[in-house]
Each structure stands twice: as C-alpha cells, then as structure tokens.
Design brief:
The protein is α+β, with helices and mostly antiparallel strands. It has three domains: 79 residues, no CATH class; 117 residues, no CATH class; 135 residues, no CATH class. The chain contains nine helices and eleven strands. The strands form four sheets. Strands 8-9-11-10 form a four-stranded mixed β-sheet, covered by helices on one side. A three-stranded antiparallel β-sheet has the order 3-4-5, with no helix packed on it. It has a two-stranded antiparallel sheet with strand order 1-2. Strand 3 and strand 4 form a beta hairpin. It binds zinc ion (3 copies).
Length: 340
C-alpha cells in the first residue's frame, strides 16, 4: 500500500473518508490509485477530483463506509470493488452489518493490490460466465433461517465464496488454532481464493502450464487429495517444500497459498518502501532476487517490532529455496500479465 496525504499535509489512511486534521472529505480513485480531496460538497451531490468529474460510491454514507470514487458519468452507483459483491448476509442483525463492513474493507485492499500489480479485474457484468464475483454467505451455524447447512470458503468459475463469520475475530482465532494455522485473516482468505481465480485465467490453457506442473505437480485427484488432507493432516516435512501446511494438500492449494503469500509480500514491501524503511525504488519492477533480500530484512524488523509490543510474530513463516522458486514463478507470471 502506498502512503496518502490530505491537501493540508496530514497523512491519511487508505480507509479514510475524511482528514483527521482539517476535516476535509476524501475519496480514493481506483483508476489512478490516488486519494483525492472533495471538489465541491454544496447541495446534495459530492464531487471529487480537480474538475469534479468523480462522485462517491453509493456505499459511502452507509455502514460499509466505502471511500472509493467512480466517474460521474458512470451508470453504476457502486464503485468497482463494492459491485464485485453479489451476495451479502441478511442485514437484519447488527453483527451482519458489521461483518459486511469488515469484508468490504478487506476486499478494497485486495482489489487495490490487483490493480497496482496490473492484473485484470473483470467482473461478471463484463464476463457473465467466469467474471469475478463475491458471495458473502451464512449457513445454519450462524443463521437457522438460511437453507445452506455448511458454507465452505472457496472459488468456482470466478465466484469467490466466503462465510461471513470469517469477519469475526473470535471465530477466526478458534479456527486458526483448531486447524493449526500460523496465519488467518479475511484479507488472507481473499488473496488465497483469488489465486484460484487467476490460476484459471492465467495458467490453465496457457504457455505457463507445463512449468506450473513441473514446479507444483500434477493436479489430478483434487477432491481425494483434500479429503486425505482433512483426514490425515499435512504431508510430513511439508515445511521444506510448501509455504503452509495446507499448501501440501494439493498443487492447486499450493499455488493459491503461494499466490496469497506473494501478494502479502508485495503489498507489505510497497508499504515499507513508502515509509522509507527500504530504499526508495520501484518495488514492483525490481529484480526478484533483490525483492527477496529486502523482504528477509523487513520480516526481521516486523517480528522484532511485534515482539517489543508483546505481540506474536507478524510474519510466522520461513521461506525455503523450494518455496522461493514458486514465488518467483508467480512473480514472472504477474509481470508478464501486467505488461500486456
Ligand atoms: Zn487535511
Ligand atoms: Zn464502494
Ligand atoms: Zn484453496
């Protein structure tokens, strides 16, 4: 994430709709990845940008509190992140209102990083068959009124499904402990699932496919492999070859876990560079070897800072050479896609 400033000079956050120092209204333009000050707020309609050609997302003065902008001439009412959402949990309970806010907040960070990396973000309106969409669902564990007994987090032909309960801290920590995971966040889920989406889009039926198979393995017997994983646990010594235990379940999961990890790395490197923690350089176009060196230094810093605060390590991972080779492959695929 890059840094943003109000016109008064105050540093503002990506999520802010208003400057905490001068009170000026702010909006984020996803087309240029810039934070913009309000142009005019007289009357009913807010206008943003130098010429007032942008207006706020319909979910701005709303519990979702989206601060993204859309062109004033656009026929849509919601921004390009909000309108990726196809289904939301019933907004009849305060907890579901809060969950929707948390899910959308994470999704805007996800979409920001995809746009920053130059990846195609195609919604279902543009591509009704395999365009991107999000279903935030409940099942009978949280809402006895819904039909679904169990909602599983997953991806299918562009549709990313996430149980709305993943927005709850208590649930996530419990699930993380039960599944023996090192890391579990809403943003992490989204980065993982979007990895499956881009596998379909960029690897399947592409020239990259043979290399994918050499690095990650053949992707036959997916269901059986997942059943096996949930019955018997991860492969022994998974840590030498995989970024997480779950990545050892199947090559597709390995890809999605590695993809999510690559997005974690790039996003955090961008933030650190903005704050001068790392030398000012274009993180994105840097040599992969250099990126990994910078990343290693930064993770030591991050973990040391967290330990000083009495917190668990921010980065509880260890990158082995076999994992780095997979991350480099993802780096190459994304760089080549962005150039097109
Ligand atoms: Zn200000
Ligand atoms: Zn929005
Ligand atoms: Zn997956």
């Amino acid at each position: 994430m890059r840094r943003f400033h109000c016109t008064c000079g105050q540093e503002v956050m990506f999520e802010d709709s208003e400057c905490s120092a001068c009170g000026q209204l702010l909006g984020f333009n996803p087309e240029t990845l810039e934070m913009l000050a309000v142009f005019a707020d007289e009357g009913e309609e807010l206008m943003f940008g130098d010429d007032g050609s942008l207006r706020p997302c319909a979910l701005r003065d709303h519990p979702v509190a989206c601060n993204w902008l859309i062109p004033a001439v656009d026929e849509h009412t919601q921004c390009r992140s909000c309108r990726l959402t196809r289904t939301i949990p019933a907004q009849t309970t305060p907890i579901n209102v809060q969950r929707w806010n948390i899910l959308e907040t994470a999704k805007r960070r996800l979409v920001y990083s995809l746009l920053w990396l130059g990846l195609p973000v195609v919604d279902r309106e543009e591509d009704p068959d395999v365009g991107l969409a999000f279903d935030f669902l409940e099942d009978q564990r949280t809402n006895p009124l819904v039909k679904k007994q169990v909602v599983l987090t997953g991806h299918n032909d562009g549709v990313i499904t996430l149980h709305a309960i993943e927005a709850d801290d208590v649930h996530r920590v419990k699930a993380r402990e039960q599944m023996n995971e090192r890391y579990r966040t809403v943003l992490g889920h989204m980065r993982h699932e979007i990895g499956h989406y881009y596998w379909d889009k960029l690897i399947r039926n592409s020239d990259w496919y043979p290399r994918f198979r050499r690095l990650f393995g053949g992707e036959e017997y997916y269901r059986q492999a997942l059943d096996y994983y949930y019955t018997y646990g991860p492969a022994p010594n998974w840590g030498s070859r995989h970024i997480s235990a779950y990545a050892s379940a199947h090559p597709w999961e390995d890809w999605a876990e590695s993809w999510a990890h690559y997005l974690h790395i790039m996003s955090t490197l961008e933030t650190a560079t903005g704050f001068g923690v790392l030398p000012q350089a274009d993180v994105y176009s840097s040599d992969f070897h250099v990126l990994m060196q910078k990343w290693e230094q930064l993770t030591v810093l991050m973990n040391s800072l967290n330990r000083s605060m009495g917190m668990p390590d921010a980065y509880p991972f260890w990158l082995t050479p076999q994992v780095i080779v997979k991350l480099r492959f993802i780096h190459q695929v994304i760089a080549a896609t962005a150039e097109k």
